[in-house]
Write a structure and sequence with these properties.
The chain is α+β, with helices and mostly antiparallel strands and 137 residues long. It contains 3 helices and 6 strands, in the order ααββαββββ. It has a 6-stranded antiparallel sheet, covered by helices on one side.
């Protein structure tokens, strides 16, 4: 039987064409926690042959979105920032893991680490805040 977070993930992924295009696969989908993976594709590279920063942000943002909506209430981003520590290259498998830091009735704050699958070395860190609407999934 699917849990509420898994049902919300499936519902969101059904219409999340960007995450579909990125080839995102779920690893952990739980309340306040999301772990997804993707393989760096040629179309994701910038002019230096490394993963475009915007793609890294989009990947982290997807994990953030799935984790923040996992409680069953519609949550939308109100702020997000990212720092980059290492560059990913073609064919690398990356993991984005989002974890809740603070949850209130109206807002929630999350950290997302983007790291390389084999080495677990962190390539980027994202922090974001969502507004939690009264609407439910």
């Amino acid at each position: 039987m699917e849990s509420l977070p898994q049902k919300v993930f499936a519902q969101m992924m059904d219409k999340d064409y960007c995450s579909q295009w990125m080839g995102i696969e779920p690893l952990v989908i739980a309340e306040g926690h999301c772990k997804i993976k993707m393989v760096v594709k040629r179309e994701m590279l910038n002019g230096f042959g490394i993963l475009h920063g915007g793609m890294t942000y989009a990947f982290a943002d997807s994990a953030f979105a799935f984790a923040s909506n996992s409680y069953g209430r519609v949550a939308v981003s109100i702020t997000g920032s990212m720092s980059y520590s290492k560059s990913a290259t073609l064919g690398q498998v990356l993991i984005a893991e989002a974890k809740v830091l603070n949850l209130t009735h109206k807002t929630a704050e999350f950290d997302v680490d983007v790291y390389e699958e084999k080495s677990a070395e962190v390539y980027a860190r994202f922090r974001g805040v969502v507004y939690r609407k009264s609407a439910e999934h």
